[in-house]
């Protein structure tokens, strides 16, 4: 059970980047739909659980050191090739976004008065040093920060429950005036799961392959999906209850944390940095093992080079390019989700 919790915690750590932990993604995909966003967050929870279990089990059933083999098994020769190319680009791109965000967002620069460039360097170095561990060590490191984030979110939620003075109808109405990432709450929930799975599928598959049994892998993936869903529901409810405070805020949860007490604001900023770090580690590792096996003699040297290239890319407008890819990944992820369930059904049928 311990290994299942490690896989589950690491799954959360991969998915929960800066946008998730700050509340900005939750605001656009769930809270902006008011009461309907609550239903959407529950749908997203169930989907993350099902996909987490399925993908982790496939990773164990089709042992691999990268996502390539499983993606081709899921999508076939043509769709698999397309998914492989886009996911691989996306992995590197998300890591670059984390490097850039660590310096420029309301974290190193705004909270700790550290220059953006220095903040990005710190994030890149921390990421590379972690990646010099073996995959089991990486999973442990990524999973360690998940409980910390959940504790901070519970503190902010408790504050929102105690201090909220708006009626639910008023919260619902005001929430619907906020910017949404989709035209309908159902599409918002599906898109959110879709592009996050597209980003997290690579390391989830690798993590599943390290499990001792298929049951441990599947349980770990499902636990990760459940923890993700709990975080989505809690953050969504928190933002909805304090919508009058967080409306138009770039980092809603950080704004609420700072309102409680400056010290809580610092703890939340640390959580945001931790989530960026987790995501960067997962993305760079998954990107690298797509091309080079972890037991390759020069694997660690290649990790260092890729980390340096990623840091450099964070200054040349690459993040804007990746931002344009996010929306595409969301819709392409629908094909990935459908193909995943079809592949799991096909695999189960063939092994009966």
From TrEMBL:
<protein>
    <submittedName>
        <fullName>Membrane protein</fullName>
    </submittedName>
</protein>
<feature type="transmembrane region" description="Helical">
    <location>
        <begin position="77"/>
        <end position="100"/>
    </location>
</feature>
<feature type="transmembrane region" description="Helical">
    <location>
        <begin position="182"/>
        <end position="208"/>
    </location>
</feature>
<dbReference type="InterPro" id="IPR038728">
    <property type="entry name" value="YkvI-like"/>
</dbReference>
<keyword id="KW-1133">Transmembrane helix</keyword>
<feature type="transmembrane region" description="Helical">
    <location>
        <begin position="298"/>
        <end position="319"/>
    </location>
</feature>
<feature type="transmembrane region" description="Helical">
    <location>
        <begin position="220"/>
        <end position="243"/>
    </location>
</feature>
<feature type="transmembrane region" description="Helical">
    <location>
        <begin position="112"/>
        <end position="133"/>
    </location>
</feature>
<feature type="transmembrane region" description="Helical">
    <location>
        <begin position="145"/>
        <end position="162"/>
    </location>
</feature>
<feature type="transmembrane region" description="Helical">
    <location>
        <begin position="33"/>
        <end position="56"/>
    </location>
</feature>
<keyword id="KW-0812">Transmembrane</keyword>
<feature type="transmembrane region" description="Helical">
    <location>
        <begin position="325"/>
        <end position="345"/>
    </location>
</feature>
<feature type="transmembrane region" description="Helical">
    <location>
        <begin position="263"/>
        <end position="286"/>
    </location>
</feature>
<keyword id="KW-0472">Membrane</keyword>
């Amino acid at each position: 059970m311990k290994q299942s919790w490690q896989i589950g915690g690491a799954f959360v750590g991969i998915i929960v980047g800066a946008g998730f932990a700050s509340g900005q993604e939750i605001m656009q995909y769930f809270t902006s739909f008011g009461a309907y966003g609550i239903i959407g967050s529950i749908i997203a929870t169930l989907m993350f659980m099902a996909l987490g279990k399925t993908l982790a089990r496939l990773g164990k059933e089709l042992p691999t050191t990268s996502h390539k083999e499983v993606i081709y098994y899921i999508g076939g020769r043509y769709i698999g090739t397309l998914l492989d190319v886009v996911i691989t680009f996306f992995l590197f791109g998300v890591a670059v976004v984390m490097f850039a965000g660590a310096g420029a967002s309301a974290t190193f620069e705004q909270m700790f008065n550290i220059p953006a460039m220095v903040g990005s360097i710190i994030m890149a170095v921390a990421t590379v040093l972690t990646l010099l561990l073996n995959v089991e060590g990486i999973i442990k490191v990524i999973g360690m920060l998940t409980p910390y984030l959940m504790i901070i979110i519970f503190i902010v939620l408790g504050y929102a429950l105690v201090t909220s003075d708006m009626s639910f109808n008023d919260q619902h109405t005001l929430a619907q005036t906020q910017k949404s990432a989709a035209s309908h709450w159902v599409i918002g929930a599906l898109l959110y799961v879709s592009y996050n799975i597209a980003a997290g599928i690579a390391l989830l598959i690798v993590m599943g392959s390290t499990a001792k049994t298929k049951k441990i892998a599947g349980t770990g993936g499902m636990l990760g999906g459940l923890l993700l869903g709990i975080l989505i529901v809690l953050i969504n409810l928190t933002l909805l209850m304090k919508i009058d405070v967080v409306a138009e805020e770039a980092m809603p949860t950080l704004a609420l944390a700072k309102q409680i007490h400056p010290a809580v604001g610092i703890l939340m900023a640390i959580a945001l940095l931790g989530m960026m770090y987790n995501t960067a580690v997962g993305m760079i590792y998954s990107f690298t093992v797509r091309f080079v096996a972890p037991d390759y003699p020069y694997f660690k040297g290649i990790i260092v080079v890729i980390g340096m290239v990623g840091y450099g890319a964070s200054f040349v407008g690459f993040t804007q390019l990746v931002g344009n890819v996010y929306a595409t990944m969301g819709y392409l992820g629908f094909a990935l989700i459908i193909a995943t369930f079809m592949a799991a059904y096909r695999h189960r049928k063939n092994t009966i």
